[in-house]
């Protein structure tokens, strides 16, 4: 079955109050993929989760206070791509350690969760700032 | 943050009336739990039955409650955990860390280190 091409682009203020809005859009997208053969309930939760974790990391660590964030979600065929663009100083994605399950640290699980749920995660400089890009084959 | 509090058989029952526990409200919950413990509440039961989404920041707030209760020789139990939230605990290997019960009565019936009330024989 041929899946429609979907491209969403949303601009939001750098505030955690918008996490729910963007997360819910991710969930709704999953529910609209009627030809997805996997567990749609799990996909909906996971899209909500990776969007929430990605935005939270950028809001807290990229140093982009008072600047808008641009979220781009693209689905083409079986390929899902999510980009979060910021205009801050950026952060070192590779420097984020994997959490030790024996250490009950209260922070540091966001990137671990994204890495676990998506096929690839990348954070790089762009002409206008930085982009956190996550990809997954559905 | 919408949370209500009641005393239940010597425990403090907190009902969290939010669909999401995420980076937006997790610090408020974390601070509230700590404040309750500092004021002397030793046995806390957090009802998450209305929560359908928890992120890593939310897990951090729950971990903070767990650790602070431990430091005070108190108790921090979770009830009403929805399946997707449970899957977050599993993904982050926190299932065995938290004291989790299906419902409030189950949490009240269990005395850590003792005998569950409901298993007593008449």
Automatic annotation (TrEMBL), chain A:
<dbReference type="InterPro" id="IPR050267">
    <property type="entry name" value="Anti-sigma-factor_SerPK"/>
</dbReference>
<dbReference type="InterPro" id="IPR036890">
    <property type="entry name" value="HATPase_C_sf"/>
</dbReference>
<dbReference type="InterPro" id="IPR003594">
    <property type="entry name" value="HATPase_dom"/>
</dbReference>
<dbReference type="GO" id="GO:0004674">
    <property type="term" value="F:protein serine/threonine kinase activity"/>
</dbReference>
<dbReference type="Pfam" id="PF13581">
    <property type="entry name" value="HATPase_c_2"/>
</dbReference>
<feature type="domain" description="Histidine kinase/HSP90-like ATPase">
    <location>
        <begin position="42"/>
        <end position="136"/>
    </location>
</feature>
<keyword id="KW-0723">Serine/threonine-protein kinase</keyword>
<keyword id="KW-0418">Kinase</keyword>
<keyword id="KW-0808">Transferase</keyword>
<protein>
    <submittedName>
        <fullName>Anti-sigma factor</fullName>
    </submittedName>
</protein>
Automatic annotation (TrEMBL), chain B:
<dbReference type="Pfam" id="PF01740">
    <property type="entry name" value="STAS"/>
</dbReference>
<dbReference type="InterPro" id="IPR036513">
    <property type="entry name" value="STAS_dom_sf"/>
</dbReference>
<protein>
    <recommendedName>
        <fullName>Anti-sigma factor antagonist</fullName>
    </recommendedName>
</protein>
<dbReference type="InterPro" id="IPR003658">
    <property type="entry name" value="Anti-sigma_ant"/>
</dbReference>
<comment type="similarity">
    <text>Belongs to the anti-sigma-factor antagonist family.</text>
</comment>
<feature type="domain" description="STAS">
    <location>
        <begin position="21"/>
        <end position="111"/>
    </location>
</feature>
<dbReference type="InterPro" id="IPR002645">
    <property type="entry name" value="STAS_dom"/>
</dbReference>
<dbReference type="GO" id="GO:0043856">
    <property type="term" value="F:anti-sigma factor antagonist activity"/>
</dbReference>
